[in-house]
Amino acid sequence: MEIRPTTDKDLDVFVDTLHAAFGRFPETPAEGGSGVWWSALEMDRCLLAMTADGRPVGTAGAYSFELTLPGEVLVPAAGVTAVGVLPSHRRQGALSAMMRHQLDELRARGEFLSVLLASEALIYRRFGYGPATYTQRLTVPRHQAAFSLPRARGTADAPATGSDTGSVELLRRSECGEILEEVYDRYRRAQPGALSRPHRWWALHAGQPPISPAPRYIAVHRDADGVPDGYASYSIGEPNTLTVDETIATDAAAYTALARFVLGHDLVTQVVFKHVPTEHPLRWQLADFRAGEVSGDTDWLWVRLLDVPRALTARGWFTDGELVLDVDDPFLGEHGRYLLTVRDGKADCVPTDREPDLSLDVSDLGSVYLGGTAPSTLVRAGHIRSHRPGAATLADALFRAERPPHCLHWF
Ligand SMILES: CC(C)(COP(=O)(O)OP(=O)(O)OC[C@H]1O[C@@H](n2cnc3c(N)ncnc32)[C@H](O)[C@@H]1OP(=O)(O)O)[C@@H](O)C(=O)NCCC(=O)NCCS
């Protein structure tokens, strides 16, 4: 099996091989498909696995994203995508060979983090990835949607949005211009775990709604000065369900106003919020805490560290402390012991031969890195080994982010 990099000329064969791996035919706009996701592929970052007689049997790619780390630190991150191996050639090491080639290539480019969304949770841990952000669906029946705080009265010019002084305007997706892109970009810079959505994605409509041009209503929230600071993209389908693709807001007041807007929609029996973080304020804002039914609780972004000291010193920290981490990276055949010292929001991370406080696999370090998984949970799960009392509690305090990480970008 040979792994070879691709160029723009390989786009058709790459996409064709990938579709065959998933057993699907491409959806065309005429068939109700919306946007062509592969138009954003970066063909100079893709790989094809080829048989000895020159047939393509496997694909893998990467997007150039920026990831927001705790402390509002923006770093480059490779968004691994388009992974597939033909059913006729599975379990012969094609994916392993592509993963190895890709990790080497990312390092050669000077990148120190890669991320992905996993189709199945059993695939990627062996390659050093760990689940790091989580998402769930929140379904609220409209008859139970009363807020615990009363709604302020609105006027025709400034519809009521709660206690905030902004307003909500209803647009069609096609009327939004660059509003969504701008609001999303401001939001993601302050949200740990969020990924950038490069301009070309919006220009090419290369994703899921609301990046794609699929018909959607967009409730745009504007602040008191008329500047857009949030939006909710939604559609209504049977049985009288309003489904919100995503609610993006740069502050809590705008989020609340948008939640009130969709929950106040007439002729709807329930509102489904598709991608909410696990600790979401909306459930607390409703008078009836049980009104919001949680489902579809699952992992979203998986993180892989390619350079432990660089990754640990890049993020922001919120508690001082010192930990010795013994990190095993079996896929790359590497092992390192590091002294992590955090002072005044910054970390130092250097090799050490001191006795370790915690021993962990690089995939578990990926899981705790953004602050969305408590190290003590992984100690209790038997993944991380703690070598002294109090080490897991200190690690919990150290790795916590300013707020739970969340990612809702699909790629
Ligand atoms: C997932 C997929 C790419 C794996 O490719 P592959 O070439 O068969 O993987 P490899 O042969 O390199 O497997 C390496 C190891 O991972 C294991 N593995 C691979 N895919 C697995 C899966 N879906 N579930 C459980 N284990 C899996 C293999 O058993 C093997 O284990 P071993 O080393 O102990 O023998 C392939 O099954 C596929 O294309 N699936 C459909 C598309 C898909 O889900 N893509 C991922 C998108 S995120």
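^ coenzyme A complex. The pocket of coenzyme A is lined by residues 21-22, 83-85, 90-96, 118-120, 122-123, 126 (CB under 6 Å). The first strand starts at residue 2 and ends at 5.
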